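re: ur question from earlier - yeah i can do the single chain one, its not a big deal. heres the input i used so u can compare w yours
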Amino acid sequence: MHASDKLKGDRGVVMAAVKQGGCALEYASEALKDDCYVVMEAVKNASWAFNYASNRLKSDPVMNLSSRSTESVKNLNHMQA
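and the output i got, formated as tokens:
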């Protein structure tokens, strides 16, 4: 995926992209990979997108738990379907 640095750093563009697919977080600017709202939106769509979050967010206990909780809810919903 090729996007300009300007687009990679545009919060509105990145939020729209991660709502479509969490994997878009991989291409976001470092600043947006450190934005908890952007990261959680990405994780809602793809729990593994948390791997692209900043090291600060990955080491944050609340964010770490939130990302795991999102994955657990998705797994539970899938099992009930």
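Helices lie at 5-8, 11-20, 30-33, 36-45, 55-58, 61-80. not sure if urs matches, ping me
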